Amino acid sequence: MPTVTENRTGGGAVKPPIERTNPPNSRKTSGNHWWKRFQSSRTLVLLMLPGLAYFLLFHYGAFVGNVVAFKEYVPFDGLWASPWVGVENFSRMFGDADFWHATWNTLAIALLQLVFFFPVPLAIALLLHSLTSDLLRRFVQSVVYLPHFLSWVIVVALFQQVLGSTGLLNSVLGDAGLHSVDIIGNPDAYKPLVVAQVVWKDAGWGTIIFLAALMQVDEQSYEAAAIDGAGPWRRFWHVTLPSIRPVVVLLLIMRLGDVLSVGFEQMLLQRPTVGPAAGEILDTFVFWQGLVGGDTGYAAAAGLFKGVVGAALVFAANKVAHRLGEQGIYK
Amino acid sequence: MTTAVRPARQARPTRPAWVEKPKPVTQAGKAVAIVVLLVLVLVPFLVIISTSLASNQEVVDNGGWVIWPAHPTTRAYRQILDGGIVTQALGVSVGVTLVGTLFSLACTTFLAYALSRPKVFGAKPVLMLILFTFLFPPGMIPAFLLVKGMGLLDNYAALIAPVLINVFNLVVLRGFFQGIPEELYEAARLDGAGDWQTLWRIVLPLSKAALAVVGLFYAVSYWNAWFHASIYMNSDHWPLQQVLRTYVIGGAQIADTGASEAGMVSAPQTTQMAVLVIATVPILIVYPFLQKYFTKGVLTGAIKS
User: What fold characterizes domain B78-304?
Assistant: First the structure.
């Protein structure tokens, strides 16, 4: 108590008295014994409770519901009274051609995204970074970030209105006396279309992390390279690329670990326009089997399978990163 | 006067001396690339807004599209905002966004603050518990069964409670709180402030930028959400995005526009575009505020951790 009044009036001489008296004191009260620690931080524990309750209920509580994957769900009986069926749902799933087809579509779209989406943000970031006008750069940044904040409903609607059979592109082509192109609703064009949508929506936003990495590159390394006679291209190759490599590797790993998720909302919205043969991915398979078809246990099995494989992939990708001497997502 | 100013401005070394002057070809290439980027993003917006403002006749004459309306009219807007389905959906969207953002921001802030302080009872296991959910989400079917089991079907709480806290936003705020100098906490404690008062009087006023970003992220995600509404809510309680989904992507007519019969009904194209614009406008309004903080490193700093 005396220290408090002393500090209030004392002004400048705040630090020494604190360091002498308080840290040992606070360590004693909030030290090893859990009850003491609880006592000294009970306001904070109280503040933690709503959030903790949310995670326990809607993540861990919901997670328990995965037992339905080993049951035959009867809505009238509810989750707990429904009969157990062992791994029947899983064995049925492994023999289901539709399931494997959905898996194949998922992987194909993920691969296309990796090849055609992944480099775009890097390219745009390099372009933006090379602009000498701050004003122009900020303006272009603002514009290309924007689509990220639109919902998938709006993005899909925009694409349908621009590329659809009666859309903008085709009316322009028609006016020019050219053949119309069949993009929306054409199963063959579906995979390129969904990748194009992801590029339109998120390529601009994806630049944010590359731009941050480019800002961190030491200006002096460029200068030294230039003085040693390196042209723009060699400076890019020997200075820029090595400097941003950790970020690129990190993003690649995250993408590989998440390879079974290729945009549930986007695919769900457009599956009806092309049908399941072209448009079904693992997530929409779960949705259609379970929430539309009512085959709850079976759908949960497919969802659980996806979750387990997904977690294993994250682990594996992280291991690979450590092997390569990169940081990875966690240590 | 101007001739004196201009060279001085150009001489300002925005490009370091050791960088060679780019070739005209490179410059032209960059200019083209930038124009292409801007056109690709902006033209769809222009066309949608123009079409929504055009008259029916003009839309029909142009084969369904208008780049620039000759006689702008707000009829499509007046029609759908006249107390029909779209009006109601707009109300649902606004309500869920406001209430959801408030609860999400409060719970995220409290949790992030508690997890950012040292030696809090239980903080470490709680943090591990939360980060683990990132690795292994519960899955769509179990989540649905839980909401159903809690009796939340067709309850607006089903649109908020299951997505109350976003781990990424939590990490952003926690990182920001941890960046506040320890001396300030110490000073507050010496002034006799408890943890609650410290949060209220010291931490929150210092964190306005971070709170604004996280709040806007929550608001945008509530505004844009439609999937949970489609599985949990009856159609008369749908938010705008879900209505937009059925009427624009699904191609159904907007049945109950609240306007009088047949003759008054706007060409579907103008009406659809008007709904699309209404669903987009709030994003365009908050966007400049969001944009302001991107450059400030609030996010990039947190992404790294």
Answer: MetI-like fold (1.10.3720)
